[in-house]
Give the backbone structure.
Amino acid sequence: MSSQGETLIEAKGVSLSHQGREVLQKVSLAVRRGEIATLIGPNGAGKTTLVRVMLGLIKADSGEIIRSPGLCIGYMPQRLALSENMPLTVTRFLAMAGKASKLSMQDILHELDIAQLADYPMQRLSGGEHQRVLLARALLRQPDLLVLDEPVQGVDVTGQAALYNLITRIRDRFNCGVLMISHDLHLVMANTDQVLCLNHHVCCSGHPDSVSQHPAYLELFGTATQAELAIYTHHHDHTHDIHGNVESDHEEHGLG
């Protein structure tokens, strides 16, 4: 892999209209290797549209997308709806992702502490387990850039904190860049380096501490209570496994 800090993907002045409505207005964003960048904003703000433009799935009306040569991208959707009538184990689901990198499927399962779920039906997984399997699928190609669309969708608060901590460890382990979509800065502020608040245009951007105090952010989201902030910003002396159980540091599995 290339050196840490290189720009992996960049949007410059991207604008896009749909059915006469301006969805994106001159939006710029760069994601670097070793960095977690988070897009936040209300529903319908254009977050997913911007990511799809950056991935080349939608063509913008104007602006420029610059990708590092040979950029390998791993994508994690919000959730996948699987038919109850189609038996599909975790292993079979991951095998459907196609050719993996030099890291084997078992390597990834162990990294994410879900090796014990290999033969489980996908339909029987909890919310946190399901999201970890989707994350495993995105990691199979050992991507330079990991793109996560609302990665804690359908996960309880304890599981959300565990998943965000895991994403940070993955960034460190693989030296990749991470582009994440969220609707709530307070959920991700302890686990992100750069925040861009989007509401069709860039309302504000920068470090999460400064963005959370920016007038444009406060106008959109209001102020979190101290109790809400404490959940996501204080330092734990323990961790939780994917089932919510407390484990000490020396028991922690995965990417530590």
Observations:
- The mean pLDDT is 83.
- The CA atoms of residues 42 and 220 lie 8 Å apart.
- The longest strand covers residues 7-18.
